[in-house]
Amino acid sequence: MSGLLDDFRSEFKKPNNTLVQLILINTVVFLTVVIIKVVSQVSSRGYVSHWVMSQLQMPWAPGDIARKPWTVITYAFTHVEPFHILFNMLFLYYFGRLIEEYLGSRRLVGLYLLGAIGGGLCYAVCYNFIPYFSVPVGTQPLLGASGAALAVAVGAATLLPNYTFHMLFIGPVRIKYIVLFFVVLSFFNSVGDNAGGNIAHLGGALVGFSYIKFLQNGSDIGRPIYWVMDLWSNMLRPKPPVKVSQRQRSTQTATSAYATAGSPGPSVSIPDQDEIDAILDKIGRSGYESLTREEKQKLFRASQKS
User: Which of 162, 183, 184, 182 minimizes the C-alpha distance to 173?
Assistant: First the structure.
């Protein structure tokens, strides 16, 4: 057990490992929920599992949401069915690595969390203002990372619509068609048994599309998320015992402000035309997959300037 915990800690200490960390958080929450459910049922204390789930899954009633506002985020990390979390994490992995490579880790987290919030709000609005979805109080709670994962997928397809995945038994398929299939499927299933979940999918999809379009126009709607991330990180980071000179403090402040603005990272410089031409030549010779992470981010930043 200690070796497993050490593996988890090492994954969270690795730089540029945000995608794996998101998947690990979902996995840890899933295993914890399952263990609590089994133990509480075996010990005839099912109310413990019920209480834990009520603190994680998102209710639809405004009063319940106001009493548990954290559920707008926690529901997107909570699963109770193994195939549910397996499908969501595979979806997040394949599309999330594109967002992470082209836009950086901070924007991957920002898009995931915004997709969760957007999906949850869409679910709450529909269940409170559209008569068709009206249900008795206490039913249809929302849980699962599907909305957040679909936000990442739609974001990747909006950013790189012609990027190709090689599908088993099918062959190469552009990701815009893969994502469109799942969006249309969620739309048709929004009047089915899992209406709430599919409504959250559509809300996440809308967030993913809007996030990339705003970003391409020079506006990053994830900045509030980055600010909270920086605040949380600063609270958890141990203070260094050494004194910092005034010059060093000024440099650190400028770097922090640059990161808070949601940039992919200080290692990516503003590319000049020669660099862009070299990257485009490389794409022509070997395709998008041959680019390094820095080259992909430089290409994206160049598209923002144009």
Answer: 162
